[in-house]
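Regression check, glutamic acid case 400:
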Amino acid sequence: MSFLSATLSRVKPSPTIAVTNKARELKAAGRDVIGLGAGEPDFDTPAHIKAAAKAAIDAGKTKYTAVDGIPELKEAICAKFARDNGLTYVPEQVSVGTGGKQILYNALMATLNPGDEVIIPAPYWVSYPDMVRLAGGEPVAIEASLETAFKITPEQLEAAITPKTKWLIFNSPSNPTGAGYSWDELKGLTDVLMRHPQVWVMTDDMYEHLAYDGFQFCTPAQVEPGLYDRTLTCNGVSKAYAMTGWRIGYAAGPVELIAAMRKVQSQSTSNPCSVSQWAAVEALNGSHDFIASNNEAFKRRRDLVVSMLSEIDGITCPVPDGAFYVYPSVAGLIGKTTPNGVVIRDDEVFATALLEDEGVAVVFGAAFGLSPNFRVSYATSDAALKEACTRIQRFCAALS
Ligand code: GLU
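Current build output:
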């Protein structure tokens, strides 16, 4: 019998992190690699946020804090929810953790019993199903295809709900597709949930501020106030504020759930980094002007990638509403062969061969639960994206 836990045997390491590490290793070994794997903005953290962190260090704010966040940050989070989402929360309803990941993980650990089902629209962010498994639950994927712009329908949601369903994990704009649900589309889903009082909603709003072409972000408890008492609204500073390494995620929801999440965190990591919390206070309360200019760059890059990939025979590349990902289909390339004799059987072989032959790192679609696709993160420079897309074009043209 293995020394390792049976639970862990149901879980795989994070593929997004694996691809990012592989690209980093190849670069360190001298290979010319363009990494489009990690979902991480190339922009620096804005200066006023860094200054707040330095001031916190100088003021000695370097000790343990309250387990799930300093009062100042909880206040800033309540103000953010009121300002951006029309949602009223008090600090007792707020939890701050080490990145969005810890928040989601705490919530699942705090609520799942063996056999509990969690509905996850696919394609999904790689970590949702494995976090559910780690917490002892059963992920139930609903497939959203290219034909429905990667969004699930109310009928699909209705059909997936069982008496064992505990959560729906909702994510818009989506990682990995960038698809965003309009108010009416989301209302269609929340109407279904109103008929099933046992199902709670965990909404991952991490890409809220990264929206293009006038896409209007909305979140479940805002669209259907009747769900407020069974919604955990999750967000974080990583993506919009270019603060991935600071590791600050947060959520607001019912007091009992927040207290249970605090219990999990008190027995694992305790508080998120004190200095990062002060930086996050400044991020949320300070100027947001930089977001518009960052978004201009993201939109330009999105358009560049979509247009260059769309020129390729065999690739279909939908235009996303938000986030900084595109999720093209490679259905038209399956069965073709590379000049080295590798048969592109599936999207994992496609991504591996692309890295080997052209030094472009992308994440294969199977990791996100919908194949045959791959995810490109376009949160990198225009020049790198242009070169990467040129290489992808060359790679595909060489297939026979
Ligand atoms: N969320 C980002 C991504 O999807 C960061 C890596 C991770 O935590 O998965 O690439």
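Comparison notes: Residues 14, 16-17, 38-39, 125-127, 175 surround glutamic acid (CB under 6 Å). Residues 6-44+290-397 form a domain with the Aspartate Aminotransferase, domain 1 fold (CATH 3.90.1150.10). No diff flagged against the previous build.
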